[in-house]
Input
Amino acid sequence: MKFATRAIHVGQESDPTTGAIMTPIYQTSTYAQTGMGEHKGYEYARTGNPTRTALETCIASLENGKYGLAFASGLATEHAVLSLLSSGDHIVSCDDLYGGTYRLFEQIMGRYKVETSYVSAASVASYEKAIRPNTKLIWLETPTNPLLSLVDIRALARIAHRHNLLLVVDNTFASPYFQQPLDLGADIVLHSTTKYINGHSDVIGGAVVTNNKTVYESLQFFQNAAGGVPGPHDVWLTLRGIKTLAVRMRQHQENAISVARFLSEHARVEKVYYPGLPSHPDHELAKRQMNGFGGMVSFQFKGTLADVDKVVRRFKVFTFAESLGGVESLVCHPASMTHGSIPKEIREARGLTDTLLRLSVGIEDIDDLLQDLEHALS
Ligand SMILES: *Cc1c(COP(=O)(O)O)cnc(C)c1O
Output
């Protein structure tokens, strides 16, 4: 089955007891058992819930993976993946990454003596140079957040496997519609399903997919042992959202291309970051490893921080807010919002300046979006 069909049907067969087309919300904490050790596959809802199983099965299929697990947030998912490490282990990560991931590495994992080295996202050689005898994971986001650089997943998978490391890819920005990291050699792919997968800005959630049975069993053990599971209603909303992932992503991309072109020609824009523009340094890599370029566009505004503040106040269709991947367009100021937890010197050294704005281009009518940008930037 093709992607759009799997998004609607995999894990979501009609309910065996009633024939209900939609997966029921199994709002229960426990399940009746017939006798000792005899039950229908479910004992307690932290360990398993049929609504959650449907989502886990569907997301695994969309990532071309065997095993999926859902969590209460993207960060709870990342924490589960980090539970594969022990005190004294080391991570090599790209330097342009979600601020919350950086905070988790530095302020939580750091306390457990797990150290992280950050390397320039696009430089393949720098990852290998940073590997130490105690390195266990290479951690990537591609496209990166918010500068939308690409990392060559295939090349990094070769390096990781040569050194017996696991390659983790945060695939939140591309969504499985535009990129399948497991097919390119990654061992673990994870999502903040809060973003494109749910797509309607009404749920916080996360998921991880792998083909590695040992990894899966460890993550599943952690899911039950630490308990960061999503509730059935959130899972059900995510399942409802996932059904339209393919059509949404196509429209996000179509609108993002128009927005990126519009900004490239605008007098008050210094620089546009969108991998779909032929001028983007990773455009060729994007064509090779992705099936599209996604819906995120960042740009550097010509002016001061005070000018940027005026711009964000003038938007009428775009909403000034954190997050991304919903049907509605959002504009975010990474330096003070999503990436506020990264110290200013570190941020600026990575090109994440105070005049950078990030757009999550929604699926509204493109004419309204361009008009809104024209007005805000004028
Ligand atoms: C939002 C986000 C996360 C964190 O996910 P939550 O669902 O907010 O916990 C992780 N990675 C990326 C790339 C994100 O955009």
In short: Residues 73-75, 98, 100-101, 141, 145, 170, 172-173, 192, 194-195, 204, 206 surround pyridoxal-5'-phosphate (CB under 6 Å). The chain has two domains: 3-242, 245-377.
